[in-house]
Amino acid sequence: MEQAIEKVKDFAKKAHDGQMRKYTPEPYIVHPVRVMKLCKEYTSSAPVLCAALLHDVLEDTDVGKEKLRDFLLSVMNEKDAALTLQLVVDLTDVYIKKDYPQWNRRTRKKKEADRIAETSGQAQTIKYADIIDNCKEIVQYDKEFGPKFLQECKMLLQRMPKGNPQLYQRAKDLVEKELAQWKMEKQS
């Protein structure tokens, strides 16, 4: 299955080609790779690891669901491909500004929290790793948005306790630590 994971990584890298991380001068693919590596500390499930690599592909690239499905079927069996695709779909934001311009960010994020609360523990495990990786950069590089992002993460984590318990605790602890740090800095 390592071979399939490498092919998925290459696919994700090509899909995100030209995209950069918002706060660092790194190619975007470093984020999904770090998310996958975090997940790999807690699971050996190939569909989970592949979905971690692909978690932003439908949302942030021009790759559509059919193209992704066809690719997955070319590198893994039908059952694993279906699960991987479902996890990626579960991790793709639905309530985005473009489609719901009448809603403010808070409303959209609450709807996303309601939606992701209904996803599988596997999808939630990937989301924990995504939160951990994003928190580190956003808190470090965006002092204005960081606290809002942390509050959104806290709300999300309260709604999605079905994933890996150790990674869940790790994400909760990080968010709480960063929120406490922000409050201390604000007071001084």
Report Rg: 16 Å
Structural class call reads: mainly alpha
Q: Give the proportion of residues in helices.
A: over 70%
CATH topology type: Hypothetical protein af1432
Q: Could you tell me the strand content as a percent range?
A: under 5%
As residue ranges, the low-confidence spans are: none
What's the end-to-end separation, in Å? 51 Å
Strand-and-helix sequence, N→C? HHHHHHHHHH
Give me the CATH superfamily. Answer: Hypothetical protein af1432
Query: How many β-strands, per DSSP?
Result: 0
Query: Sheet with the most strands?
Result: none
Shape: globular
Question: Can you characterise this structure?
Answer:
- The structure is a single chain.
- With 188 residues, this protein is mainly alpha-helical.
- It has one domain: Orthogonal Bundle (Hypothetical protein af1432).
- The protein is built from 10 helices and no strands.
- Helix 7 runs parallel beside helix 9, helix 8 packs parallel to helix 10 and helix 9 runs antiparallel to helix 10.
- The radius of gyration is 16 Å and the shape is globular.
What keyword list fits this structure?
0% strand; 188 residues; mainly alpha; 10 helices; Hypothetical protein af1432
Summarize the structure.
This protein is mainly alpha-helical. It has helices at 2-15, 30-40, 46-54, 57-60, 65-75, 78-90, 105-116, 121-141, 146-159, 165-187. The protein has one domain (2-187): Orthogonal Bundle (Hypothetical protein af1432).
Question: Helix and strand layout, with pairings?
Answer:
Blueprint: H1 2-15, H2 30-40, H3 46-54, H4 57-60, H5 65-75, H6 78-90, H7 105-116, H8 121-141, H9 146-159, H10 165-187
Helix pairs in contact: 1-3, 2-3, 2-8, 3-6, 3-8, 5-6, 7-9, 8-9, 8-10, 9-10
